[in-house]
Design brief:
The protein is mainly β and about 400 residues long. It is built from 1 helix and 32 strands.
Length: about 400
């Protein structure tokens, strides 16, 4: 039986919390850490909040807002896309990408996923129905729509006149930014079982760097769609199917000619951008994107520890372990703090120097799944129920 792409990180957590295993008779009970008691050093200010459709519900989806030139773009899973004024959250335009099926029947939901990317005069978003949309950022009208090789569960990436899409069946495709025509496709290979999620590519020096579900990081020439190198950073091992998952679902980060990549059940690895050779690695696994800034790497591991390491050899600087198994979002760096959300709807603000909490506040009872987004002086976060919030420090 093929289980490809239907094993969610959320499902893994739920299985462990219930005390049973999908793949063995062992009982693994993992308890969510209680909410830490934090003496707030400041109170984040909510500037505005507004609803964008019905959100994602109980589905795993990486939908998150995008920001450009004073406008916030946000969507729900069913097809609603809105443009909001970043200053006050007021609606500028709204479109519905759900398929019209007839006068007397319900519309077929678009199943939008992966998050919005804003670039120039357009915004781009993919769907679980293997569709990629380019919308005019001024009014939301469809500039083009393209059928791709599989579910588009990671955000589109725009570079060098291309829109890059990494699909759920392991294809990296380059679409013409102006027309949506598929220029090239690269098969990154797929294992029989993997997590539901795909690495969004990052681009540098004319190449796309992307992680794959086969535990490898690949570099592809943008103008040709030709594979330059592949490097394995995670080797399947262990007694159960979950133990042997080796997906690289995080977006690689390129700084000063070094590629930093992170695998589930694998390693945090530094690779040489030109050759793909391993420079160093640490035994840390995650499915959440990492930050590289000021000679430091900030990440959330697969047990929800927030960790800071040096870019020189991956030496540990500090580790915050009071949020274990709270299903944290990827971290962001905002106004000098690390900020993460959790499944109970809290935002946690962490000192970058020592890993201590500096503030904590409840945002939305439906919970937070996708990372906050920095929009100039504001911090945006979209809750699972579709509410979008803007905060300032």
């Amino acid at each position: 039986m093929e289980l490809r792409k239907y094993l969610l990180p959320v499902l893994i957590s739920a299985t462990l919390l219930s005390g049973c295993s999908l793949f063995s008779g062992e009982e693994d009970v993992v308890k969510m850490a209680p909410l830490p008691q934090v003496q707030n050093q400041f109170e984040p200010t909510k500037v505005w909040s507004t609803s964008v459709g019905d959100g994602i519900g109980d589905f795993y989806s990486n939908l998150h807002p995008a920001w450009q030139d004073g406008t916030v773009f946000a969507a729900d899973r069913y097809g609603i896309v809105k443009a909001l004024d970043a200053a006050d959250g007021k609606e500028k335009w709204k479109v519905d990408l759900a398929e019209k099926t007839g006068f007397f029947s319900s519309n077929r939901p678009a199943l939008l996923s992966g998050g919005i990317t804003a670039s120039g005069e357009h915004i781009y978003i993919g769907s679980e129905r293997a569709q990629v949309f380019a919308l005019n950022s001024a009014d939301g009208t469809i500039a083009w729509q393209t059928k791709v090789a599989g579910e588009a569960v990671s955000r589109p990436v725009v570079s060098d006149g291309l829109v890059l899409i990494h699909t759920s069946n392991g294809m990296l495709q380059g679409l013409d930014q102006a027309s949506g025509a598929i220029k090239w496709s690269v098969n990154l290979d797929m294992p029989a079982l993997s997590l539901r999620g795909e690495s969004a590519p990052t681009t540098a020096f004319g190449a796309a760097i992307v992680g794959g579900d086969n535990g490898r990081v690949s570099a592809v020439i943008l103008n040709q769609g030709q594979l330059i190198w592949q490097q394995r950073i995670s080797q399947p091992s262990g007694a159960t199917e979950i133990d042997r998952l080796s997906d690289v679902d995080t977006t690689p980060v390129v700084v000063n000619g070094v590629v930093y990549a992170l695998a589930y059940n694998g390693n945090l690895t530094a690779l040489d951008l030109r050759s793909g050779q391993v420079m160093w690695k640490r035994e840390i696994g995650s499915v959440r994107d990492l930050i590289v800034d000021g000679g430091r790497i900030y990440l959330v591991d697969q047990d929800d520890r927030v960790i800071a390491l040096s870019t020189e050899g991956g030496v540990s600087i500090w580790r915050q372990s009071d949020l274990l198994h709270r299903n944290l979002t990827s971290p962001v760096l905002y106004n000098g703090y690390i900020v993460v959300g959790d499944s109970e709807g809290y935002l946690h603000w962490i000192n970058t120097q020592d890993g201590r909490f500096v503030a904590q506040h409840k945002v939305d009872s439906s919970g937070l799944l996708t990372e906050p987004v920095v929009a100039s002086d504001k911090l945006l976060i979209q809750a699972k129920d579709g509410e979008v919030y803007a905060f300032t420090r």
